[in-house]
TrEMBL record:
It is a multi-pass membrane protein. The keyword Glycoprotein does not apply. Belongs to the binding-protein-dependent transport system permease family. FecCD subfamily. This is Iron ABC transporter permease. It comes from Larsenimonas rhizosphaerae.
Length: 329
C-alpha cells in the first residue's frame, strides 16, 4: 500500500508539471491562479485552461486506460508480454478512421473519434468471435492467433486506402504518430466518460481475475464462469483501449511495459496491481508528453514517438529476461 501512495504522489507531481511545462513555463502559483480564476483577460490562465488542461487530462486518462487494458490482456492470455494490440484495437481504429477520411473528408473530428472507437470495438469483437468459434473456450493461444490475423487484415486494408488517397494519409498522420494535443474537452468528454466507467468496472472482477490467473481449470474448479469472465475482460479491453486510441491515437508500449513493471513492484493481486497499473500508466504518459513538448523547443515530438523511445529498450530487456518462457499474470 505504501508503494501505491508513492505512485499517487508521483502522479500528482507529474500532473502539475504537465500544466507548468511548454514553450513558456509557468510557475506553480500561476497555474493555481489559472485553475481557480476564470478571468477572460488573463492570457496565461486562458492558455493553461484551454490548451494544457485538456492535453493533461487526455494523457492522464489515456495512460491509465492503456496500462490497465494491458494488465487485463496479460491476465486473459496468461502472457506478461501481451498488450491490447493483440485484439486488433489499433488496427481496427485506424481502418475506420482512414475509411471516414477517404469517403467522407468533410466529417468533423468528433465523428473521427467515434469512428476510431467503433473500429477498435469491431476488430476486438471479430477477434473474440474467431477465437471462440467451434468450442466453449478458444484459449489464450487461439486468441493471440486470431488477433494477429485480424490485425494484419485491417492493416492491409488501411494501407491500401492510404496509398490511393494521399490526402487521407496527411489527415490521419496526427493519429498514426499519437498525440494528446489539440483535443477539445467538449469532443473527448464522452470518451473519457466511457474510459472512467471501464476503469471502475475492473474492480468487481478483480477477485475472479486472481483465480483465472492461476489457470482455467482451477477457476472452473472453484465455480468461476470462465467463458463469461473472459468475455467481460474482452469488453473491458475494448472500452479501455478503444477510448484511449480514439482520444490519443496510436500509442505503443504503455499497455505492454507498465503492467510488467507494476508486477515487479506490487503484489499480483488485481485489486492492487491494476490500481498500480493505472497510476503508473498515467504518470508515464504525462511525463512522455512533457518531455516531447520541451526537448526540442519550439517544436514538439509526438507522444507516440516518446513512448516508443522509452518502451523499446525496456521491451528488449523484458524479452531477454523472459528467455522465451511463459510468464505468470
Amino acid at each position: 500500500m505504501t508503494r501505491l501512495v508513492m505512485m499517487l504522489v508521483l502522479l500528482l507531481a507529474s500532473l502539475w508539471l504537465s500544466l507548468m511545462a511548454g514553450a513558456v513555463w509557468y510557475g506553480p502559483s500561476t497555474v493555481g491562479h489559472a485553475l481557480l480564476s476564470a478571468s477572460p483577460t488573463d492570457v496565461q490562465g486562458l492558455v493553461i485552461r484551454t490548451t494544457r488542461v485538456p492535453r493533461t487530462l487526455v494523457a492522464l486518462v489515456a495512460g491509465a486506460c492503456l496500462a490497465v487494458a494491458g494488465g487485463v490482456m496479460q491476465t486473459l492470455t496468461r502472457n506478461p508480454l501481451a498488450s491490447p494490440g493483440l485484439l486488433g484495437v489499433n488496427a481496427g481504429a485506424l481502418f475506420v478512421m482512414v475509411m471516414l477520411v477517404s469517403l467522407w473528408p468533410g466529417a468533423g473530428v468528433s465523428l473521427w473519434y467515434g469512428g476510431a472507437f467503433a473500429g477498435a470495438a469491431l476488430a476486438a469483437l471479430l477477434v473474440w468471435a474467431v477465437a471462440m468459434r467451434g468450442q466453449a473456450s478458444g484459449g489464450p493461444l487461439k486468441l493471440v492467433l486470431a488477433g494477429a490475423a485480424i490485425t494484419a487484415l485491417f492493416t492491409s486494408f488501411s494501407q491500401a486506402m492510404l496509398v490511393i488517397d494521399q490526402q487521407g494519409l496527411d489527415t490521419v498522420l496526427f493519429w498514426l504518430a499519437g498525440s494528446v494535443a489539440g483535443r477539445p474537452l467538449a469532443e473527448v468528454t464522452p470518451l473519457m466518460g466511457v474510459a472512467l466507467v471501464a476503469l471502475f468496472a475492473c474492480r468487481p472482477l478483480a477477485r475472479s481475475m486472481n483465480v483465472l490467473a492461476a489457470g482455467e481449470a482451477i477457476a472452473r474448479g472453484v465455480g468461476v464462469g470462465v467463458a463469461r469472465l473472459q468475455l467481460l475482460m474482452v469488453v473491458l479491453v475494448i472500452l479501455l483501449a478503444g477510448s484511449s486510441v480514439a482520444m490519443a491515437g496510436n500509442i505503443a508500449f504503455v499497455g505492454l511495459i507498465v503492467p510488467h513493471i507494476a508486477r515487479r513492484l506490487l503484489p499480483v493481486d488485481h485489486r492492487i496491481w491494476l490500481a498500480g497499473c493505472a497510476l503508473m500508466g498515467a504518470t508515464l504518459l504525462l511525463l512522455a508528453d512533457v518531455i516531447g513538448r520541451t526537448v526540442i523547443l519550439p517544436r514538439e515530438i509526438p507522444i507516440g514517438v516518446m513512448t516508443a523511445l522509452i518502451g523499446a529498450p525496456l521491451f528488449i530487456t523484458l524479452v531477454r529476461r523472459q528467455g522465451g518462457g511463459h510468464g505468470r499474470a
